[in-house]
Structures
1.
Amino acid sequence: MTDTEIKNRIESLARLDDAAWESLCKCCGVCCMLKHSRHTGTYYTSVACNNLNLGTRRCAVYSTRLNNRVFCARVDLSVVLRTGLLPDSCGYIEYIYGPAPIQIRPDFSKVIHERDMSHATPVSQMESGNSHPRHTTPGPWNHIIDDSLGWRTRAMELRDKYADFGRDILRRIARTTQK
Ligand code: SF4
Ligand code: SF4
């Protein structure tokens, strides 16, 4: 993708109506997994929001998910443009930057719900392959998924590169909606 193509894609994403926006979601369920932020980046865990149906990977409360669930955030353009929140293979990321080099397909048979976290066996540091200090208290950090799955690959650099351009668009949208 050329520089111009990527900028045009960001611009066109900003203009999509709700139906077209929703149609880009691949319903992979990946963004409904708990994330753990550290200074080295955002890491996905094998712990899913309690509202995610682990069989269908669909949200059980989608139409009302933003009413009373602090954890859930609408995936909008600002989320798409922020580095680290969505995987390369997210439909919105692919729309802007092209097909991901690796499709993220977690083994959902190993995914647990947030409510079951304290009973589940943590992913071992060796198995997870990450270099985080081991936490002694239970939490999503005990379930960080092996980053070799490619959560954060190509699009990270690209997302950094176009962050300023994306912010300009978001400011422009905010000004338009205030009028
Ligand atoms: S409430 Fe939000 S995070 Fe939870 S399953 Fe639904 S969309 Fe995903
Ligand atoms: S990661 Fe992207 S494609 Fe997958 S469910 Fe979330 S918004 Fe949809």
Note: The chain has seven helices and three strands.
2.
Amino acid sequence: MLTVHHLGKSQSERIVWLCEELAIPYELKCHTRDSVTMLAPPDYKALHPIGAAPVITDGDLVLAESGASNTSSRNTATAGWR
Ligand SMILES: N[C@@H](CCC(=O)N[C@@H](CS)C(=O)NCC(=O)O)C(=O)O
């Protein structure tokens, strides 16, 4: 199952939009920014060391970059391959 790690006020909204438009099943995990620094929280940085968004995970795959995430999500949904 695809998991979209959503970081508020970031490009990760693109991945949520894509999944909704193409009816791709996904789990949404929302990560809240630090209220003072506005940086990604530690659980998000465990996925991506610099805390950039978006990040998706699917099994053992951890993928950053919205272009790569969009392509991977679409391929999984339409052809069953990453
Ligand atoms: N080329 C990357 C750009 C990602 C990017 O710059 N994300 C910004 C938010 S939109 C980010 O994570 N900045 C650090 C932050 O917001 O803390 C992509 O398309 O995924």
Note: The pocket of glutathione is lined by residues 10-11, 39-40, 51-54, 65-67 (CB under 6 Å).
